[in-house]
Write a structure and sequence with these properties.
The chain has 144 residues and is an alpha/beta fold. The chain has helices at residues 39-51, 61-64, 94-110, and strands at 2-15, 18-23, 26-32, 68-72, 115-117, 125-139. It contains three helices and six strands. Strands 1, 2, 3, 4, 5 and 6 form a six-stranded mixed sheet that branches. Helix 3 (94-110) links the parallel strand 4 and strand 5 (115-117).
Length: 144
């Protein structure tokens, strides 16, 4: 499981001209799932996102109850090392990745985090104001 995590002043997702999710100060998380990811990876990722001290004053989402905007993004597993066209073979298909994406969101919620979501598999327009800028790339230890 791979996440690109950005500290933001604000972020939102628009699908078909409708704003489906938005947050103020918090984290925007782009989440990709690969074939060997499991529920263990989802739980680990949720805890890590909640506990990372990447907000101002070295605080975490859990410390200050900041929101998270979670967006599924299979392209995080794109491979563009050869040729001009990326391959997506390392990305898990929707029937595998959607339940794991949901599991990360649900575990974050269970841990007390307000989670806003994009629409899985939709053509989304994601807007954000990166704060810092602070951006981390995080791979789960068990997955790819």
């Amino acid at each position: 499981m791979r996440a690109v995590i950005q500290r933001v002043l604000s972020a939102s997702v628009v699908v078909e001209a409708d704003t489906v999710a938005s947050i103020g100060e918090g984290l925007l998380v782009l989440l990709g799932v690969t074939h060997n990811d499991t529920a263990v990876d989802a739980a680990w990722m949720a805890r890590k996102i909640r506990d990372l001290r990447m907000l101002r004053d070295e605080q975490s989402v859990g410390d200050i109850e900041a929101p998270v905007l979670m967006v599924s993004q299979f392209t995080l597993y794109g491979d563009a090392r050869k040729g001009r066209r990326p391959t997506w073979s390392a990305a898990a298909p929707g029937p595998v990745s959607e339940p794991l994406y949901d599991a990360v969101c649900e575990e974050l919620s269970r841990l007390g985090t307000r989670v806003e979501r994009g629409v899985f598999g939709a053509d989304m327009q994601v807007s954000s104001v990166n704060d810092g800028p602070v951006t981390l790339i995080l791979d789960s230890p068990h997955g790819g």
